[in-house]
Amino acid sequence: MDLINQVIQGIFLGGYYAILASGLSFLFGVMRIVNLAHGSLAILAAYVILGLANWLGLNVAWALLLALPVMAVLGWWLNRLMLQRSLRGGGLIPILATFGLSIVIDNLLFLRYGADSQSLAPNIGALSYGSWNVVSDLYVSQLDALTFASALLVLGGLQMVLSYTALGRAIRATAEDPDAVELVGIDARSVYSAAAAISLMLITVAGFFLAMRGTFSPYTGQTQLIFAFETVVIGGVGSLWGTLLGGVVLGIAQSLGAQINPLGFLIAGHAVFLIILVLRVYRGHLKSPATLRRILTLRRKAVSA
Predict the structure, then answer these.
(1) For residues 170-191, average pLDDT
(2) How high is the pLDDT of residue 286?
(3) CA atoms within 13 A on the CB side of 100
(4) Cα 19–22–27 angle (5° rounding)?
(5) Inter-axis angle of helices 38-55 and 92-113, to 10 degrees?
(6) How does residue 285 score in pLDDT terms, banded at 50, 70 and 90?
(7) Gap between the Cα atoms of 239 and 237, Å rounded
(8) Helix/strand/coil (H, E, C) string of the chain?
(9) 196 touches 83 (CB < 8 A)
(10) Beta-carbon count within 10 A of 298 CB
């Protein structure tokens, strides 16, 4: 029963990782930018939601709804002022620019809030610790279930936008060939700005669940970036639903690792990420049995000829 319980907890943890990684994967899929400020922006969103909830006395759900357009506007201008300009300098410049942005965000948050850890758990009452008893020794956290259901809604909603709206079709076309879409009247710069705004909204949802699930401080963004990056690599770079698969795999690995040893939580996740990364790197050098049979057949024909 302990093993089953750990696997189930890992699956639910994967829902959070899917939300966390969706913004990183989406922005890379559209603009081919590895956003190293992803984790710091999630922490910034968490502070924005916490501030709205505490200063205005709002419910956390209302605070999230107010934070979403604020972060979307930030994403829009972030693209106009930094991302598009850095893209003109080649592939390395956006990486350095977002790395610098993460340092700026971390230190500004430290100057404003100090090193004390913060959390939204006191704002959500029993939801932070409530659970359902499924069978005798198997419990499911209400917050974990809400997080996983939200992951399905977020990914499903984003899939619907990309598949059935004019904006989604423009985003997919621009991701394929930004120069060609200009010829048919699509403003690639505006599409990129919309994509950055959507990415920041996804990051805001991730910051919301991060703040409810545990504590955060100005310098915890880098850890979240690592988890998001591992999820994207395991699930497939640029794959929307792959982030859910990657998150579940990472969550199960961490959960089972923690069952073996308290330090195994991180080590097991990193180990699975490394194994899958190596397999992806060397996949091009590996031949499937069908490919090997075709090669041998061609060689036999060449020799007989």
Answers:
(1) 89
(2) 53
(3) 9
(4) 150
(5) 30
(6) low
(7) 6
(8) CHHHHHHHHHHHHHHHHHHHHHHHHHHHHHHCCCCCCHHHHHHHHHHHHHHHHHHCCCCHHHHHHHHHHHHHHHHHHHHHHHHHHHHCCCCHHHHHHHHHHHHHHHHHHHHHHCCCCECCHHHCHHHHCCEEEEECCEEEEHHHHHHHHHHHHHHHHHHHHHHHCHHHHHHHHHHHCHHHHHHCCCCHHHHHHHHHHHHHHHHHHHHHHHHHHCCECCCCHHHHHHHHHHHHHHHCCCCCCHHHHHHHHHHHHHHHHHHHCCCHHHHHHHHHHHHHHHHHHHHHHCCCHHHHHHHHHHHHHHHHC
(9) yes
(10) 10
Paired tokens of 42: 């999630």
Q: Which two tokens stand for residue 4?
A: 């089953």
pLDDT at 182: 86
Instruction: Say how many C-beta atoms besides its own lie within 10 A of residue 226's C-beta.
Output: 15
Across 233-270, b (16+ Cβ under 10 Å) vs e yields: bbbbbbebbbbbbbbbbbbbbbbbbbbeeeebbeebbb
Task: Count the alpha carbons within 13 Å of 162 in the hemisphere toward its beta carbon.
Answer: 19
Return d(Cα 13, Cα 138) in angstroms, integer.
16
Pair of tokens at residue 154: 């977020």
Cα 23 to Cα 222: distance, rounded to the nearest angstrom: 15
Query: Helix count (H) and strand count (E) of the chain?
Result: 13, 2
**Which residue's entry shows tokens 């943890």?**
13
Amino acid at 138: L
pTM beyond 0.90: the answer is: no
Residues in the chain, total = 305
> What is the gyration radius of the CA atoms in the chain, in angstroms?
22
* List of long-range contacts for 178-181, beta carbons under 8 Å, 24+ apart: none
Token digits of residue 214: 């545990």
On the question of pLDDT at 142 being above 70, the answer is yes
- The separation between CA 85 and the C-alpha centre of its own chain, rounded to angstroms, equals 24
